[in-house]
Amino acid sequence: MPETDLSLLIDAAREAGRIAVAYAGREMQSWDKPKGAGPVTEADLAVNAMLEQHLPSARPGYGWLSEETEDNQDRLTRDRVFIIDPIDGTRSFAEGSRTWAHSLAVADRGQVIAGVIYLPMRDMLFAAARGQGATLNGQPIRVTAAATEAEAEVLAAKPNLRPDHWQDGVAPIFRRAYRPSLAYRMALVAQGRFDGMLTLRPSWEWDIAAGDLILREAGGTCTDRTGRPLRFNNPNPRLNGVVGAGSELHEILIGRLDQPMQGHRA
């Protein structure tokens, strides 16, 4: 059941936080991943090792997809799969920021049924199970109802406002903010701290899976950049961007985007 999966994810996220916090603020080994995929630290690997030992042993029939584990296509044969980012925002974690997160989810036949985003340095645990609503530290959360782009404050990296992403080359006039962790951006929209978020480049499933459910269970709409619902555990675990907001603002943003006919835009 999603409820028991959620309890499992919450316990695992808190243990991940204990491990990661022990590394925070001290020198640690780090490496650059191949093909410009970003840094990884010994803390990422330690958290991943704990999760990979603990979660599959608790759910032997589930598949496994994690940023820090070499992908195994066996997951495609499983109805349910863990989708894990041991530390989302590794670069900011290594730099001493407090806005990195653990992102843990379970997807059932492509749909997320339980998700947790945990920021241990801020004592913020966002959680949701399908059909049960979304919470922050056990209290219900809800998206805002901003109905126009002029009213909205949207979390987005600056390159997302390039003219070539938008119809007629005109970017929206919303107020822009940014946080380095994509999972945290989605959680902040679910919390109602910001009105929407978007990222228009291909994005990894492990950055998004937990936030997709939390945002939708908080009353929001979350899709790819074309407006299609997100599906997970794909052979290539990348999605065509993410747009998340309350329903009215989401419709406005999707309507303003210039949809490329071929491929993805960075």
From TrEMBL:
Keywords: Hydrolase, Magnesium, Metal-binding. Mg(2+) binds at residues 67, 85, 87-88, 207. It holds the Pfam family Inositol_P. Its cofactor is Mg(2+). It comes from the Bacteria. Its EC number is 3.1.3.25. The keyword Metal-binding applies. The keyword Repeat does not apply. This is Inositol-1-monophosphatase. It comes from Ruegeria arenilitoris.
